[in-house]
Amino acid sequence: MTLSPPSRVYIPAKEFPEINFFGLLVGPRGNSLKKMERESGAKISIRGRGSVKEGKTQFADDAEEDLHCFVTADSQDKVAACVKLINEVITMAASTPESQNDHKRNQLRELAILTGTLRDDENQLCKNCGAAGHRQFDCPEHKNFTAGVVCHVCARV
């Protein structure tokens, strides 16, 4: 098995310092990175400044380079497919506002599922009015259930 020449995809972290490209590429528990590797058949390593936490060891030759993805595979087609997937994530992050970024929204949803904190308001029915899209405590048709209660001591409503 001969390896295809590796490819480097530089991440524009200096141009867009407010965007967490590392987090978008890696995803919750590395799932986004693993998914890209499965789809393309290539291996991705994120290297360069900012790829490793302070105090951890890093590849010596890449330590002073800019943040980049190092892509390797056994064929050039797999490398090209992987580079395309990486560029799609980078382009979406750089061109789309964070609130409209579907990739990030899906990652946050996946993280909530993994941690058990997902509140799926979209598919639940309100226990007060029966409508979908909100919870009982936030119901626009809030009913006062105490209005019909009669006090047994003084017989007042």
TrEMBL record:
Matches recorded under CDD domains: KH-I_BBP
Protein name: Branchpoint-bridging protein
Organism for this UniProt entry: Mycena maculata
Single Gene Ontology MF annotation: zinc ion binding
A Gene Ontology BP annotation from the UniProt entry: mRNA splicing, via spliceosome
Alphabetical keyword list: Metal-binding, mRNA processing, mRNA splicing, Nucleus, RNA-binding, Spliceosome, Zinc, Zinc-finger
Keyword hit for Nucleus: yes
Source superkingdom: Eukaryota
Any single Gene Ontology cellular-component annotation: spliceosomal complex
Taxonomic path: Eukaryota, Fungi, Dikarya, Basidiomycota, Agaricomycotina
Function in brief: Necessary for the splicing of pre-mRNA. Has a role in the recognition of the branch site (5'-UACUAAC-3'), the pyrimidine tract and the 3'-splice site at the 3'-end of introns.
Compartment(s): Nucleus
Pfam families: KH-I_KHDC4-BBP, zf-CCHC
